[in-house]
Amino acid sequence: MKKMNIVFKIIFPLFIGLLLIAGVSIYTNFYLLEKNIVKKSNETFNSVSKIFKNIVQQDTNIMLDLIDQVAEDPTVIKLYNEREREKLFKYLQKRYISYNKRHDITHFYVHNLDKANFLRVHNKNVHSDTIDRITLKNAALTLQASSGIEFGIVHNLTLRVVSPWYVNDKLIGFIELGKEIDKVTPELTNLIDVDFIFTVKKNLISKEDFEKWKNKSDRNRHYESMKNYYIIDSTIDKIGSDLKKHLDMKGKHENHYLENNEKKYFINTRSFFDMKKQHVGYIHTVVDVTEDYKFLYSLIMKVSFVVFLLLFCMLVYYIQYLQKQESKLKDAYSKIQKLSITDGLTGVFNKRHYLENGPRQINVCSRCNGYISFILIDVDNFKKYNDIYGHLEGDKALVKISQVMRKVFKRSSDCSYRVGGEEFLIISKSDHENNNLQMAEKLRKSVMELNIKHKENESYDVLTVSIGICTTKAINTTQLDDLYRKADDALYRSKNNGRNQVTLS
Questions:
Q1: Are residues 400 and 498 in the same domain?
Q2: Distance from the CA of 365 to the CA of which of 119, 176, 198, 427 falls in 20 to 30 A?
Q3: Same domain as 265, residue 324
């Protein structure tokens, strides 16, 4: 009885106090979690312009490389100099189709020195008109490549790259490639999981032209007319009245909350200017926070239920609860120690973590519709190295190789694992099928450049690695063991073919 009185005197006031604290805590958590949603939205908005700029620069560089390929083609030069428009079109048509498929290039021009169009590869029936665009004017004036986003009723908002065309140091014309902005928005959406809506001022487009533009059969976009603006591109299919009302407002709006078709959004509006510094309209960055709020409400309900249930049970089972929790903490601490995910020598992840994390990497990659690569690395003749130089030097060598791996594969999506004594595995995501093959070759060369002496490594005299790589389009059914086995088979071929090489499965 005395013990019960002591427990009651201690627990009851504590229970009441904790009950009040729990109520305040739940409200505070709700407030802070909601504030965190707003903060995350702001961070997303702030990163959009930087990422958009990087994508535009990357696309510009790609188009410059493609233009160089065209400009240096002897057949292109010959047909252009002979003014064989039809033959030049037929010759460049396949290249344009390839550019469109691989890089979303939508425009392909060949211009004369007087800025009159000689050939539109994307529309061969229209030619000989004088082009009055800033990008072409800048290229003609500076005799250097010019790029930027320009607006036009026929071509929408388009990233254009124009480069002077020299043959034997003589300027013979200009080559232009273009990529419509609606080809860029999906890249942004995939990178940062946001939606975009482009609105253009109505005074820039006549109603008749807009209807023609809207009804063109080769376009698959969301078009809509409002009081002050036209919607010319949207990654949101259904735009309700509240969202439309906001889109039709003038001026800059930051982190505005609204609901559209039973979804919750934060929307950020920024002005958009073309190369003439003319205010064309607005880019509306839209973050869907529906699931965040669902999670928030669900979490608060669950937390509230659990907290009050625990507080009630604590009145009776306080001592037993503490004992159980202490036991659980000891078990959890023991498990954490056993399930260490880092290799003690090299600092890369260990095999246990590979088995746990590998499926998650495949799943994330499949959602992004990207390529997943398993890059299996084995140090050549490492047993001989240990026999000659000792295990201490062998450990140092493995550390250096692991450092090179992390230097070459340094993206947050790249994970390096030590899966055996001298065997490593890198799992890497890429948007392009052959990108990781090039990275693997760079890794192989970088290991050689370490110049770690190994006199018994056949004809190389330095420590080298053999690499097997398996790259595939990640889907939900992609299996971890299948990718590892294919990479291992490729590694086996690298070993059998003389080592110090990269083999693709």
A1: yes
A2: 198
A3: no
Cα distance between residue 350 and residue 443, in whole Å: 20
> Both 246 and 385 in a single domain?
no
Residue 389: give its domain's CATH number: 3.30.70.270
Angle between helices 85-103 and 2-71 (to 10 degrees): 170
- Total-model pTM: 0.47
Enter the DSSP assignment of 406.
Answer: H
Give 285-309 pLDDT, tens digit per residue.
888 888 877 887 787 787 777 777 7
176: β partners: 109, 162
Looking at the structure, do residues 199 and 251 belong to the same domain, yes or no?
A: yes
Q: CA torsion sign, 213 to 219 to 225 to 228? A: negative
pLDDT at 451: 95
SS3 79: helix
Helix axis angle for 391-408 and 382-389, nearest 10°, is 130
Contact assessment for residue 281 and residue 201, using Cβ atoms and an 8 Å cutoff: yes
C-beta pairs of 218-226 under 8 Å, 24+ apart in sequence: 221/182, 226/199, 226/202
Q: Is residue 471 part of a domain?
A: yes
Kindly give the pairing relationship between strand 371-379 and strand 279-288. unpaired
Q: Is the pLDDT of residue 141 over 90?
A: yes
Helix (H, G, I), strand (E, B) or coil at 468: strand
Residues 100 and 208 placed together within one structural domain of the fold: no
Sorted by sequence, the CB contacts under 8 Å of residue 66 that are 6+ apart come out as: 99, 103, 105, 177
> What is the per-residue pLDDT across 20-47, written as a single tens digit (0 to 9) for each?
777 777 777 777 777 777 777 777 777 7
Encoding tokens for residue 295? 């999670």
Please, which residues have CB within 8 angstroms of residue 156's CB and are 6 or more apart in sequence? 180, 181, 182, 213, 232, 233
Contacts of 478 by beta carbon, 8 Å cutoff, 6+ apart: 362, 366, 372, 472
